[in-house]
User: What shape does this take?
Amino acid sequence: MSGRIVTPEDVAEGAEWLAANCPRMAHAYGLTGPLPLRRNPDGFAQLLRAIVSQQVSVASARAIWGRLQAAGMVVPETILAAQIDDLRALGLSRQKATYAHALADAGIDFEALRTAPTQQVVDRLVQVKGVGVWTAEIYAMFSLGHADVFAPGDLALQEAARLLYSLPERPKERALRDMAQRWSPWRAVAARLLWEYYHIEKQREGTL
Assistant: This one.
């Protein structure tokens, strides 16, 4: 493996490795079937969109993002030239408008991040106000295609791990981060598998 997920075949390779090394992962994979590639673009706009999506519904995030795009507010230059109230008029909260300014002013070298190791990517991104560890790890996973990154702060991953491994309670972030070590070097595929398994189980329970 190259350490990057670029094609569906990369995802399949990781899923087969997980299934061969863990009976519970094999059980989940038997239920989910082939896993999605889930690759996003990288760069400023993708991170800004992640900030926009925090703590709002998918529909709200999509609507706000559409307004930002229509106003040309998806590049650092236009964000920095805009006032906080201009951004609020497009649907951002005052806090998120502040975060957008911070991201635009951060001077991130997105091209350099493409070849940086996962921890370096996370360390650089969390320096920006409004970008937490979860957002940075998701960016490394889906925008940069890192194969061995996980997002243990994700509640759906925590719940999926509880269900799949019959744990007495949902593992907290640190416990799940430790647990995910067993899925290295394919932790990003383990995340995809757990997300898909979570949806299957919740549909079965009628809670999704």
DSSP finds 13 helices and no strands in the chain.
